[in-house]
Amino acid sequence: xxxxxxxxxxxxxxxxxxxxxxxxxxxxxxxxxxxxxxxxxxxxxxxxxxxxxxxxxxxxxxxxxxxxxxxxxxxxxxxxxxxxxxxxxxxxxxxxxxxxxxxxxxxxxxxxxxxxxxxxxxxxxxxxxxxxxxxxxxxxxxxxxxxxxxxxxxxxxxxxxxxxxxxxxxxxxxxxxxxxxxxxxxxxxxxxxxxxxxxxxxxxxxxxxxxxxxx
Length: 215
Hints:
The protein is α+β, with helices and mostly antiparallel strands.
């Protein structure tokens, strides 16, 4: 069983990528789905996050068969736990190279004694071989298929769009929207109170002028 932070990061990445890719039919997102390759001696893999370009219809896959579907994943993201580190950081680099996956991003945990310290490893496929790409000066990597920049904030992954706007997880976004609506309502109430007071003052001014004209 994976820890809570692993699940939180996986669900966040899944939601952000799904929102970015699926509405326009650019690709589909799968999470916690087994992929079976069309390479006889390459074993199947379980994946935290998988993007498949060229598919428009989302189905309830528990296993994605590359040969049967006729298309292979474009992007894998694996979130490392201590018990999976060797498999995610070493074996899968070799396996995904052989499978021809264009990009493989690892959310690596290099902390000690239960302390989480995350870093991103970004492998891109060039001429049939993976090359480890450097992160930018903020420790972020570019997901070309989704036009997003994942980065590390504390012990969580956050994505940024091409305008460097952070894409919050659902609860945070809903909280921000709720707070913004409350602020707008307060401002509207304040404006209504000011307008009421102005009307009262104008009425008082007219009364005073009317009273003065009678003298």
